[in-house]
Amino acid sequence: MGRIVLNQVTKSFDDVQVIPPLDLTIQDGEFTVFVGPSGCGKSTLLRLIAGLEDTSSGNIEIDGNDATALPPSKRGLAMVFQSYALYPHMSVRKNIAFPMRMAKMSQEEQDKRIEAAAKALNLTDYLDRKPGQLSGGQRQRVAIGRAIVREPAAFLFDEPLSNLDAALRVGMRMEISELHKKLKTTMVYVTHDQVEAMTMADKIVVLQAGVIEQVGSPLELYHTPRNVFVAGFIGSPK
Ligand code: ADP
Ligand code: MG
What is the ipTM of this complex? Predict the structure, then answer.
């Protein structure tokens, strides 16, 4: 579970095509990073996968099913927003439980999943606090916890660490990588930060103006960049 295929997907806003026909396969369990300069279409691509934007043409398959016309709630994916998307008046426990309450899951199952998520994210001692009583990194973990309890086929992250200071960002990078190793769930991660891409990805997708310039492992991109743009962006010596 967690294989995502984009076939000839395009996206236009008004008359401007920001994603020309694009093909991409994200394998089950892979940590895929979309990287590229600001405005190149990373968020748009992630939002198309999430269903938060409609494709202008082409189709999107999730685990072999056509998901192109499905609303976000039916795609089985979880988008992780920045920490500010937490409900300030609710405890950590209630924030994490929120999507399960919406889905009318049994209290027993909710408690089980909250406990497992809290353990995976080292939040067990913070479940009764409010977001305002947490550090930035802890708030980010709560946002991830809220995604974990839905047991999604894939996690979608859009620059989740951009509001954190530099030191915290490095720690959270490692935590998200660790979490991927534990859960083995597909993760699609958007960043404009080359270092983040190189350190976290199994596979990097380099974008420029909505076009995929290259797809490969960090090592492949570093040693055999396909063109000057990739070389310059990744910082390889070529
Ligand atoms: P990135 O996330 O890589 O910075 P985006 O996906 O946000 O880039 O944007 C890609 C392009 O699409 C940009 O030129 C942006 O201005 C445009 N764009 C994104 N969303 C909208 C929208 N809702 N309406 C019009 N243009 C948009
Ligand atoms: Mg963006």
Answer: 0.99
